[in-house]
Amino acid sequence: DEGLAERQKKALAAEAMIRSELDMYARFLDHAALSEAISSLVAWATRIQDQEVEEALRRMGPLTPKQEELVRNTARRVVHKILHSPITRLKRMVLEDEAGEALGTFRELFPLEQPPQEGSAEEGP
Fold it and tell me: What pTM value is reported for the model?
């Protein structure tokens, strides 16, 4: 009986360790999905930024290298500032164990599998 009780106790401890490892792995998968979603969003926004900057530079005519750099850097800073808050909130939700909800909402707001619509500022990624 003592041996059986000891084995049951060890089995419970092993089950707890397995649950803990599964939870950690689930968090790892959530973080991988988070990284993929953020990378896709940044890539989408960067493509739009680059398209719009090139169009603006074309329309402005000849600029000095310093002026062109200023236009490109300004556009980049604007995109980064716009994306900062949603990305920060998404990371916070994943850390607060709301990953499924956060990533679902994120994918609804930014359907990343769709390419940006040419000339439409209202279309999502």
Answer: 0.64
